[in-house]
Design brief:
Layout (H helix, E strand, L loop, with lengths): L16 H12 L3 H12 L2 H18 L9 H22 L11 H10 L3 H7 L4 H9 L2 H13 L3 H7 L4 H23 L1
Helix pairs in contact: 2-3, 2-4, 3-4, 4-9, 7-10, 8-10, 9-10
InterPro entries: RNA_pol_sigma-70-like, RNA_pol_sigma-70_dom, RNA_pol_sigma70_ECF_CS, RNA_pol_sigma70_r2, RNA_pol_sigma70_r4_t2, RNA_pol_sigma_r2, RNA_pol_sigma_r3/r4-like, WH-like_DNA-bd_sf
Organism: Mycolicibacterium smegmatis (strain ATCC 700084 / mc(2)155) (Mycobacterium smegmatis)
Pfam family, one: Sigma70_r4_2
Length: about 190
C-alpha cells in the first residue's frame, strides 16, 4: 500500500547530491513519454509541451529530496505538471499580449485577444457538441478537472485522487456530482 506525498514531510535521506541525482534520473526516466503525452494534450502545441515537460522536471528535481520512496512517483510528477500548467495559464492571463508588428491596428489586436485563450478553453472548443462544451465550462473547477482526468485522459480513480490530493471517494463524489450537473445543464439547454 502506498501513501500520498504531502507537503512539509521530511526529505528522503540521501548520501549526497550525486546519489540523489542518479536516483532522480533512474526513477523518472520511465515516465518521460507519459509526461510528454500529457503535456501535448494539455498545451496542444509540441513546443509548449516540451517547455512544460522541462519545467515539470526542473521542479520535480528541485523537490525530489522531499519525495518519499514507496509513494506513487507518476502521480507526483503529474501533479507537478498540472500545477505548473495552471500556474502558466494564470501568469499568461495577467501578462498583456505582445505584438511584434508596429503596424497592427487596434481592431486587429482586439480580434487577436479574443482568439487567444487557454489550452483548456481550446480543448472545450474542440468538443463536437457546442452545448456540451458550454456546460462543461460552467462547472466548478473541481468537477471539471475530475471529469477531464477520468473521461478525457482516462485515469483511474486512484491516480486522479493522488493528482488532486484527495481521497478516491471524493473523486467518485465529484464525478457523480459533476456529471449530474452536466446532465441537468444539457437538459435545460435542450428544452
Amino acid at each position: 500500500m502506498t501513501s500520498q506525498h504531502t507537503a512539509g514531510t521530511e526529505p528522503a535521506p540521501a548520501a549526497n547530491d550525486t546519489e540523489l541525482s542518479a536516483r532522480f534520473v533512474n526513477e523518472t526516466l520511465p515516465y518521460m513519454s507519459q509526461l510528454r503525452s500529457r503535456a501535448r494534450r494539455l498545451t496542444r502545441n509540441p513546443v509548449d509541451a516540451e517547455d512544460l515537460v522541462q519545467e515539470t522536471m526542473l521542479r520535480a528535481y528541485t523537490g525530489f529530496g522531499t519525495f518519499r520512496e514507496g509513494t506513487n512517483l507518476r502521480a507526483w510528477l503529474l501533479h507537478i505538471m498540472t500545477n505548473t500548467y495552471i500556474s502558466g495559464l494564470r501568469r499568461a492571463r495577467r501578462r498583456p499580449s505582445e505584438y511584434l508588428c508596429d503596424h497592427t491596428s487596434d481592431h486587429q489586436m482586439a480580434a487577436q485577444d479574443r482568439r487567444s485563450q487557454s489550452a483548456e478553453l481550446d480543448a472545450l472548443d474542440a468538443l463536437p457538441n457546442i452545448e456540451l462544451a458550454g456546460a462543461l465550462a460552467t462547472l466548478p473547477e473541481q468537477f471539471r478537472l475530475a471529469i477531464y482526468y477520468r473521461d478525457v485522459v482516462g485515469l483511474r480513480y486512484r491516480e486522479i485522487a493522488e493528482i488532486m490530493a484527495c481521497s478516491e471517494g471524493t473523486i467518485m463524489s465529484r464525478l457523480y456530482r459533476g456529471r449530474r450537473r452536466l446532465r441537468l445543464l444539457l437538459a435545460a439547454g435542450a428544452t
